[in-house]
Amino acid sequence: MKIKGNIIIGQSGGPTAAINATLAGVFDAGKKLTEGKVYGMLGGVEGLLQENFIDMCEKITTDRELELLKRTPSSYLGSCRFKLPEPVEGNEVYEKLFKIFEKHNIKGFFYIGGNDSMDTVKKLSIYNDEYKKTDIKFMGVPKTIDNDLVVTDHTPGFGSAAKFVATVTKELVRDSLVYDLKSVTIVEIMGRDAGWLTGASALAKGDDCEGAAMILLPEVPFDYEYVKNRVAQLMEEGSKSLVITVSEGVRTKDGKYVCELGSEKGTDAFGHTMLTGTAQTIATMLKNDLGIKTRAVELSTLQRCASHIASATDISESFAVGQAAVKAASEGETGKMALLKRVSNNPYICVTDTHDVREVANLAKEVPQSMINENGDYVTEEFIEYVRPLIEGELSQLTVNGLPQHIKL
Prior knowledge:
Blueprint: E1 6-11, H1 19-33, E2 38-41, H2 44-48, E3 53-55, H3 63-71, H4 92-103, E4 106-113, H5 115-132, E5 137-142, H6 158-176, E6 183-189, H7 196-199, E7 214-216, H8 224-236, E8 241-247, H9 278-290, E9 293-298, H10 312-330, E10 336-345, E11 348-356, H11 381-387, E12 399-400, E13 403-404
Parallel strand pairs: 1-2, 1-4, 4-5, 5-10, 6-8, 6-9, 7-8
Antiparallel strand pairs: 2-3, 10-11, 12-13
Helix pairs in contact: 1-3, 1-10
């Protein structure tokens, strides 16, 4: 079966090293499974409201360009953080969007993103089901380095970010041991409500690396006295230099973000507190209380789009989940999110599936307690077995002048 009309694809939220591989998957399957054109929104649904989109078949014309798209980090089509209002009958935003769909014969809507993006798909699907009753298929396609979407085993983009985090942790451990003095390096890693990405720093530990001394996740209330005493204990036992990884979203037991202990933070378009400065706050406290050298390293946006060290597994799965979304829509599914389902861990096997997006949007998947050690300052072997297959494999780079080649509009 084919989708009888045109389809449109958008990207939303923060970029990753794999979101364009998902776009490539939707585009590739869209060319085969739709009778019309494959459009790309420029700037997500916010751009769509301005009828700002392109015919992707005019931009990606060769197999090499498709491969370049898979290897190019960030969002090729641009992004937005636009929150749709509640789907109430006659709402002007929805009415405008559905007029655009009708005008351009859009029969398939594919939105690549994280939790807020799945909220967009959910609301459009609800509005269509309850008020418009068109035959448009609305499909969510997962993306987030935070790995916090429910139902899917893991999210496209997470594996590559995890590979980067683990690699950087190994390198920072080596760097920290150069000088014969006591010091602590606090590494701040993205993760508002879930510590999946910070937990991936545990992969650095091995025969060739001491690894992080502590891994602090949002799932465990931050106890500064414990951290301070543990650092002092480890140094008394002979550790001269420590690396501690911490999620940006760690909170005290009363719910206050640690980063807010240093200064007040603003909010984004979705009302989320802007998180930055967690590592610096902890580093300053340890320096003042223990009188040791401390350093704060904030990976910031570096961890999102490090395509030079992307996981081949991640890129392959990201492409596949994009294809799966189009295939499902062509078979009549709508109001769903494509997902990844782990069939086996050894050997690692993962397949695609779909699930009702209403049971995904606005829910967060936290690291379960079984994957966090008893002291709450490290992850367990169960966590390591879960994440290790996701970072496997290296993607061959297409280069120009000694650097990775990217594709852009």
